[in-house]
UniProtKB/TrEMBL annotation:
Belongs to the MIP/aquaporin (TC 1.A.8) family. The chain crosses the membrane at residues 29-52, 64-86, 92-118, 153-172, 223-244. Keywords: Cell membrane, Glycoprotein, Membrane, Phosphoprotein, Repeat, Transmembrane, Transmembrane helix, Transport. Pfam families: MIP. The keyword Ligase does not apply. It is found in: Basolateral cell membrane. GO terms for cellular component: basolateral plasma membrane. InterPro entries: Aquaporin-like, Aquaporin_8, Aquaporin_transptr, MIP. This is Aquaporin-8. It comes from Triplophysa tibetana. GO terms for molecular function: water channel activity.
């Protein structure tokens, strides 16, 4: 009889230990937004500094490596908190593929844009005034005439489509999810910058463009870095939803 009572008490103790505590509002809503703000801040900060301090060089290797490695590190650290978007087009594409609830989309976008401004401001504080001015605060100033627009817009669409597909297939699509997503996304950033840096500057991220533009009041052809990346991300979401996703992700051909 005593053994039965002891077993019942043991079962109750184990049950209490295994009961999961409901996820609080802070963890569900506020913490992910803070992670997006902090992650975007440091990504834009490090990226801008690499461009500003590389102003005397004609090469793209340093900015490419810095942006790619920064993305890889931040994604690896914060993926379990917010999903590590740090980029408005990623958030839009992930929402279209069912990876984030709609009420979180606007808070994520706002957090990312604020992070972009804070990161650009931090880069201005850290770098010399001369280098900052010479690099236009790491704004995307490569486009100087209408003749370049078509190629630049296409470049932003195509390159953002590529990296967004990597994100969707590596982190959202059930069949192809991979623990190597941070490495894959970082490598994709590097190869995109190396390939297309001289054509459009390889923005891929409106938050990365918005922060420096606001800090320097440089808005020449700024719209390219919104239209191109957002269009590219929607194309990537369509490809995954229609053709590349698993049976749960695809909306046709099941």
């Amino acid at each position: 009889m005593e053994e039965k009572v002891e077993l019942e008490e043991l079962d109750k103790t184990l049950l209490k230990k295994t009961e999961t505590k409901p996820v609080g509002k802070y963890v569900r809503i506020f913490q992910p937004c803070i992670a997006e703000l902090v992650g975007t801040t440091f990504f834009v900060f490090i990226g801008c500094v690499s461009v500003i301090e590389n102003v005397e060089s004609t090469g793209r290797l340093q900015p490419a490596l810095v942006h790619g490695l920064a993305v890889a590190v931040l994604v690896a650290c914060m993926a379990e908190i917010s999903g590590s978007h740090f980029n408005p087009p990623f958030t839009i594409a992930i929402y279209l593929c069912g990876g984030i609830p709609m009420p979180m989309v606007v808070p994520y976008l706002i957090s990312q844009l604020i992070g972009g401004v804070l990161g650009a401001a931090m880069s201005k504080v850290m770098t010399s005034h001369e280098n900052y001015v010479n690099a236009t605060g790491a704004s995307f100033n490569i486009l100087q005439s209408d003749d370049q627009l078509g190629k630049a817009v296409f470049a932003e669409i195509a390159m953002t489509c590529l990296i967004t597909m990597v994100v969707l297939l590596g982190a959202v699509n059930g069949k192809s999810k991979s623990p190597m997503v941070p490495f894959l996304v970082g490598c994709t950033v590097i190869i995109n910058i190396l390939a297309g840096g001289d054509i459009s500057g390889t923005c891929l991220n409106p938050a990365r463009a918005f922060g420096p533009a606001l800090m320097t009041n440089y808005w020449t052809y700024h719209w390219v870095y919104w239209v191109g990346p957002i269009t590219g991300s929607v194309v990537a979401a369509a490809l995954v939803r229609l053709l590349l996703g698993d049976e749960k992700m695809r909306v046709i051909l099941n």
